[in-house]
Amino acid sequence: MVFNEQVDRVDSILIDGKIATNRSTMLIVNLKNKKPAVKIIVLADMNSTKTRVLDYGAEEFV
Known about the structure:
This protein is an alpha/beta fold and 62 residues long. It contains 4 helices and 3 strands. It has one domain.
């Protein structure tokens, strides 16, 4: 994953809602474990995913 190689250079990440809510990858949780200060914004078309991505650690849901 590119994030692992560039973790020190990343301040924020924009993630697609379908990827962000995929429980098998737990992308947001893994990103927060690697770099707790990273800001994560999720872009999705359904409000039903909002609670899940915010629980995972995203800062914002758009």
